[in-house]
Amino acid sequence: MNLKNSLMLGLVLTGTWMTPIHACPTNVSDPLVYQRRSNPTRCEGINRQGVSGSFGLVSFATSTLRRYPAQLSLQIPQVGPSPNLRVRSFGRRYQLDELTLQRSQNWYQIDLNTNVLQNANVAAESLRAIAHLPGSQPVYVPVIIQSSSSSYDLVFYSPSRTVIHSLEISRNNQVVHRDSRPNPRDGEIRFTWDARNQPAGLYRLHVEAEIQQRGQRPQRVTRIFALHHNPDWLSR
């Protein structure tokens, strides 16, 4: 399958953005609740309404973050127009989105005051971040949370028990990474990809999974994503 067809199939099959049930409110009295904020402009906080969505990719990121600084840096490589970014912590229902990114040399970035994160007891290791370029065909770019590690975290989320029979990352029809999760689990399903020795370019992520919902027959699903990678974005 060529890259164009892969991207078109990804548009149909990817279940990625898990959207809030309600829009971002303003002037909420509880300082920790998800709401529109300024300096920088964004929507941030604990979304008590929960999320909707199905099995999908919720994080393509790299990080060494273990504790919060006063200002948290989120960086995205500049490979096109300003991307859409969402950060979440599923255990605490934390959500950050609808934000304005700043250009800085070869990056888009935001420096975020961590008061909400710390006061809401959101564990630093629980942050999940995903960014994609705007347009009809989703192309994903890694998010660097404070500083990069030697690998990417690829995190899927499923509200139902899910088996991932195969995960393959390929470039020019050559598979460069394989993995699986044969034991059913719900919630977060995490993979790592050490891509330091892989050349820069656009990669294809192909996932074959089985969703097991109570009282229903198992459902086989395919998810295909296009990922930008450059080894310079990872630490050595």
Q: Could you please describe the fold and organization of this structure?
A:
This protein has 236 residues and is mainly beta. It has one domain (35-233). The chain is built from two helices and 15 strands. It has a 15-stranded mixed sheet that branches. The radius of gyration is 17 Å and the shape is globular.
SS-derived structural category: mainly beta
How many separate helices?
2
Amount of beta strand: over 45%
**Beta-strand segment tally:** 15
Average of pLDDT: 91
Number of separate domains: 1
* Separation of the first and last Cα atoms: 32 Å
How much is the radius of gyration in Å?
17 Å
Largest sheet: 15 strands, mixed
Short description:
With about 240 residues, the protein is mainly β. The chain is built from two helices and 15 strands. The relative contact order is 0.20.
Give the helix/strand layout.
Blueprint: H1 3-13, E1 35-37, E2 42-46, E3 56-63, E4 71-77, E5 84-89, E6 94-97, E7 102-104, E8 107-113, H2 115-119, E9 128-132, E10 139-141, E11 143-145, E12 152-171, E13 174-193, E14 201-212, E15 219-229
Task: Note the main attributes of this structure.
disordered N terminus; 2 helices; 236 residues; single chain; 15-stranded mixed β-sheet
